[in-house]
From TrEMBL:
This is Glycosyl hydrolase family 18 (Putative chitinase). GO terms for biological process: carbohydrate metabolic process. Residues 8-322 form the GH18 domain. Keywords: Hydrolase. It holds the Pfam family Glyco_hydro_18. GO terms for molecular function: hydrolase activity. InterPro entries: Chitinase_insertion_sf, GH, Glyco_hydro18_cat.
Length: 826
């Protein structure tokens, strides 16, 4: 029985490198190649093609030697967007010229099998129709010239329509499928010189691309693009201080091998830095090797020897980090002389007391007696809880000196939780009896008691984590024990985030019995909470489900920021979204738009595609949409999308505020309802590091203008009605970043403690690297095992045509021994 043993095992490469190894691969392993892009042609904005790069004359030997190879003339724009635009728009006849130039070069090299079109930076989805038309014109031009000539197109990695991570949303696979014989998807470059270190082609990205590609294109046309190269990211100082634009330097396989085997170092490949063979690791999820050259010890977030609440562990994409999602009050009392709970000694009026907690009702007043054994100076702290925004005031006195405790800021972090506050600092008390009196201001405030102590202090805390790092001597290439010449540096890898509105309430509906609390009210319709585990009393994924109006049980909202993440079930139409008073910010399924309404008047809209979620996936994988509005006086800003993109601004008149919550004309689900302050923001950026000598360095805080800072809670408030991004010139990458210490005088053979203290919430403490001050790095590269694994996935999991390796001459030459000969077709 005959069978095609090369089905799915084709292999395409490009002649970009022009190095000796490329020619060696062509000479010795040309029989492993099925298609080669001759990377020798470049198009400009006029449509003119010039020959540049590896000369065609240098390739003729191999072209003649391997007639089985499909030799294509690769024409590229080197990622210049203006060239793509000119060709697409036919600016001054650029596309017409380009098409005639394709004919010219095919006529000049009649032996070619056709052309390979590598055009990048084509713009967003709005350009897709014209982009497709250009590729159709290329196809027709080539086929009309000679129907046997082939057209290969190089496409960006997409996991859906509009699904490019690099902004190449001009590309729609299904539209382009008719206009190519083959297509090489350039699924390499997720990690690059300026990105956080990681696999060049991570598994999740490849899975997303090819799961989608085989539904949109003919699989037998598609080459899986794979990198033969890797990157070495220098992480011991900032790129600016290193004289670089980016941290990363591209490495061939053999360059990576030289780092791992100790042939390279960071002092120009000569002393004083030792030449150290370093252990390489295997990332079994992404099927790729990596190493940490000149790193003497490292730790992930969860390797902390100790950490304190509210820091907690998390894992995302197999990265084990520490983070805090909120701050807790950190208190100190010194010596406590009196510790009295909230049970009154005496009271008048209405006072309820249970489990050591007193709650003042009408005309309620409670007294508490205590004694100190000796005269002296004392601090007195009281413990309170404001259960809701309208239960926010209480009077407390010591020996008839009264203090009013109240809070009106909606974003204040201690709502609904107990907190300690100073009644008096440094009060002189005589030996003997004294009296604390608590009286009502607003009914419902809870009094938990008080302490008389030597020194009370309090502050909000996001916790801290201590790490033990243990640098040890390495053995160099000559077998000698070695250590850094100068000393060490510590690099801390963290993930920061863009600031968000100072939190008033975060509701994901996951708390058991949340509808039974007094925090919520149903203004109209019917609502329930669906829980993924109905009987669990733990927090589990949940959805608010229903129609009508669902609101916080409070009517004093005005300048607030509201956000919701919602989905339309199958058959549901109409409007759904967030409201405050008579303002309604919604997704309108009928008009396919984000809209803002004031009563019956539409104030603005933004077109957006909105889909319903099938019943089968409503609970497990709903198609959700995020919308939000920020109300500042008479100005309302409307945002949508996962990136919280500003869509439009509207002016309202006569807005007086009121209740706020979620509203839906027909049945929808909501999995997040968040309220924040309209003017005040929480930064997610600063952390401190305490070094072994006790010194502390602050990292990450961004300088801002047009703001005032709250030093206690480390939040900032805008002083004018602008977007937060306008307060800073620094950007926040939303990718892992590195922060570097000064040189540390540490010794191999000893253990050292490093403490990381986040000053803001939502910072992910990812990894700590202790390396040679002369230089250290993170290195990812491709080896034979990695490329063979993905070649097999291309052939047998996705049934693709094969693989396209960028680029010939960067790979481990042993790869070709592991790939089949293309000249055997039976």
């Amino acid at each position: 029985m005959n069978r095609d043993i090369l089905k799915g095992r084709k292999c395409m490469v490009w002649t970009f490198m022009g190095n000796a190894r490329m020619y060696t691969a062509l000479k010795n392993y040309g029989d492993r190649l099925s298609q080669v892009g001759l990377f020798s042609f470049k198009v400009d904005a006029t449509g003119t093609i010039t020959e540049t790069g590896v000369a065609i004359s240098d390739m003729l030997t191999y072209i003649n030697k391997y007639p089985h190879i499909t030799w294509l003339l690769t024409v590229r724009n080197d990622g210049t967007s203006s060239v793509f635009t000119a060709l697409r728009e036919n600016t001054d006849g650029a596309q017409d010229k380009f098409l005639s130039e394709l004919l010219r070069i095919m006529e000049k090299y009649p032996w070619c099998a056709g052309v390979d079109i590598d055009l990048e930076r084509g713009g967003d989805y709005s350009t897709h129709a014209k982009s497709t038309a250009m590729f159709k014109n290329i196809w027709n031009t080539v086929k009309n010239y000679d129907s046997t000539k082939k057209v290969n197109i190089c496409l960006p990695g997409m996991d859906s329509v509009n699904g490019s991570v690099g902004g190449e949303n001009w590309c729609v696979y299904a539209d382009l499928n008719p206009y190519c014989d083959t297509a090489a998807i350039m699924s390499y470059g997720m990690a690059w010189a300026g990105s956080a270190p990681g696999p060049v082609s991570p598994k999740d990205w490849l899975d997303g691309i090819y799961d989608y590609a085989v539904t949109a294109m003919t699989p037998e046309k598609v080459f899986m693009g794979l990198p033969a190269y890797g990157w070495n990211w220098q992480i011991y100082d900032t790129p600016e201080n290193l004289g670089k634009t980016y941290r990363g330097t591209s490495n061939t396989y053999y360059a990576a091998k030289n780092w791992v085997t100790g042939k390279y170092n960071f002092t120009d490949d000569k002393p004083p830095q030792p030449f150290i063979p370093i252990l390489a690791y295997w990332d079994d999820y992404n099927k790729v090797p990596y190493a940490f050259p000149q790193v003497y010890d490292f730790a992930e977030g969860q390797d902390a020897s100790s950490y304190e609440y509210p820091l907690m562990t998390g894992t995302y994409n197999r990265r084990r980090y520490l983070t805090a999602y909120s701050k807790t009050q950190k208190t100190s009392f010194g010596t406590v002389y009196v510790d009295h709970d909230g049970t009154p000694d005496n009271y008048t009026g209405i006072v309820s007391s249970e489990n050591g907690i007193a709650v003042m009702g009408d005309e309620g007043e409670a007294t508490y007696s205590f004694s100190v054994s000796s005269a002296g100076t004392y601090d007195i702290a009281v413990r309170l809880c404001y259960p809701f925004w309208d239960k926010n005031g209480i009077y407390i006195s010591i020996d008839e000196t009264q203090k009013h405790f109240t809070e009106s800021r909606l974003w204040w972090p201690y709502w609904r939780s107990t907190f300690w506050a100073s009644l008096v600092d440094g009060i002189s008390l005589s030996a003997g009896m004294h009296t604390v009196t608590v009286s009502v201001d607003v009914k419902g405030v809870q009094f938990y008691g008080f302490r008389v102590c030597s020194a009370f202090s309090e502050k909000p805390s996001a916790g801290s984590a201590s790490f033990t790092l243990s640098p040890r001597h390495f053995i160099d290439v000559d077998g000698n024990e070695c250590q850094p010449d100068k000393g060490f540096k510590l690099t801390t890898e963290v993930l920061r985030r863009k600031p968000d509105s100072a939190l008033i309430w975060y509701e994901d509906f996951e708390d058991y019995g949340m509808l039974e609390t007094n925090y919520w009210q149903t203004l109209s319709g019917s609502w329930k909470v669906w829980r993924s585990d109905e009987y669990s009393e733990s927090r589990v994924y949940s959805q608010l489900d229903g129609s009508g109006q669902f609101a916080w049980n409070y009517d004093g909202f005005k300048d607030i920021h509201l956000r919701a993440r919602l989905a339309f079930p199958s058959g549901s139409t109409g409007k759904a979204g967030i409201f405050c008073g008579n303002l309604f910010c919604c997704l309108n399924y009928d008009s396919q738009a984000v809209e803002l309404w004031s009563g019956g008047t539409k104030l603005g809209s933004y077109s957006q595609s909105i889909a319903q979620t099938p019943t089968a996936t409503l609970r497990t994988d709903p198609t959700t949409y995020t919308i939000e509005m920020r109300i500042r006086g008479s100005t309302v800003r409307v945002y949508s999308g996962a990136s919280n993109t500003l869509r439009f601004t509207a002016t309202v008149s006569g807005f007086t505020g009121g209740t706020a919550g979620y509203r839906s004309d027909q049945r929808t689900i909501c999995e997040l309802l968040r309220m924040g302050d309209a003017w005040t923001y929480e930064p997610y950026e600063r952390f401190d590091v305490t070094f072994p000598d006790g010194s502390v360095t602050q990292y990450g805080k961004i300088s801002r203008s047009n703001v005032t800072w709250d030093d206690e809670f480390q939040v900032f408030t805008l002083t004018s009605d602008i977007e937060e991004s306008e307060t800073r010139s620094d950007s926040i990458s939303m990718d892992y970043e590195f922060y570097h210490s000064a040189q540390l005088d540490l010794k191999c053979g000893k253990d050292y403690t490093i403490t990381v203290t986040p000053k803001d919430i939502d910072i992910w403490i990812s990894r700590l690297f202790l390396g040679d001050a002369d230089g250290f790095s993170i290195l990812y590269y491709q080896d034979v095992d990695s490329l063979v694994y993905w070649a097999n996935q291309a052939a047998y999991h996705w049934n693709l045509r094969g693989i396209a390796i960028w680029s010939l001459g960067q790979e481990d030459l042993r790869l070709w021994e592991a790939l089949p000969k293309q000249t055997n077709t039976s």
